[in-house]
Design a protein that fits this description.
Blueprint (H helix, E strand, L loop, with lengths): L1 H56 L4 E2 L11 H4 L3 E8 L4 E7 L2 E11 L5 E10 L15 E9 L4 E2 L2 E2 L12 H7 L5 E8 L22 H28 L1
Helix pairs in contact: 1-4
Length: 245
């Protein structure tokens, strides 16, 4: 009687295992396919972003957004826009740690006072660590015009390093925090990366904005697609093997 019971249980258990295998392969196929489609959508989004940024960077400069336009400024619509602004530099600077093609050093952030009383922080450029003293760099006076790329504020700090305003250690170009530390008001929510200036080696060195977007979505899409195909192949193979047994 026990032998007969075991004989009946084995086919039933085998059928359950097959059903679970088929269902698992179909679920994996659907999941991998969905992930592949999502990565394709992300790919086209990234390509559109790159195209929009490229068009902004190479467009003719336009006036920087005014105070009434500040609430509408967004990274999606405005970052890397080629802009221009006029005014006079205030006699205050903030050094923000940076690493560029010239090595380690600092960005020189200087407030630009415009005729309407508003301020825009300008990243005048890069100075090496051993040249961070004010005497080692130029200090434009009088009315000037700044041309460069609009950048959005970078609050908080860098990876694993927070800005320390009291100690004067800055790891990101946090517009609001820098303005509050220097007691500035009516400050634009963005800053301007100044374009390259004179080519005589004077400091700071402008025009070092790095515009690079990581785009691995095609590789991810192909990976998920391959996994979906493998899961579907396993399902088909299992079904055919089951019919032969």
């Amino acid at each position: 009687m026990n032998a007969q019971g075991n004989t009946n249980e084995r086919p039933a258990g085998s059928r359950r295992a097959k059903v679970l295998f088929y269902a698992g392969m179909l679920v994996l196929t659907a999941a991998f396919t969905a992930l592949g489609i999502w990565q394709v959508q992300r790919l086209f989004w990234k390509l559109d972003l790159i195209a929009r940024v490229e068009s902004r960077v190479h467009a003719a400069p336009v006036p920087a957004p005014t105070e009434s336009e500040w609430p509408a400024v967004t990274a999606r619509d405005d970052e890397y826009r080629h802009v221009t602004a006029s005014g006079t530099y205030l006699d205050t600077e903030t050094l923000v740690q940076a690493v560029t093609e010239y090595g380690a050093g600092f960005w020189v952030m200087t407030p630009l006072l415009q005729d309407d009383g508003t301020l825009i922080l300008v990243n005048r450029g890069f100075v090496p660590t051993d040249k961070k003293a004010p005497a080692d760099r130029s200090h434009p006076t009088g009315s000037i015009q700044v041309t460069g790329l609009l950048r959005m504020s970078q609050p908080g700090g860098a990876f694993l390093r927070s800005n320390d305003a009291i100690a004067g250690r800055w790891y990101s170009r946090d517009v609001a925090a820098i303005a509050a530390t220097d007691g500035l008001s009516r400050v634009a929510p963005y800053f301007i990366d100044a374009q390259a200036g004179r080519s005589d080696g004077s400091l700071p060195i402008g025009g070092l904005t790095v515009i690079k977007f990581r785009n691995s979505h095609l590789i991810y899409a192909l990976t998920w697609g391959a996994l979906a195909l493998m899961s579907l192949t396993a399902f088909v193979y299992g079904v055919r093997a089951g019919k032969r047994s």
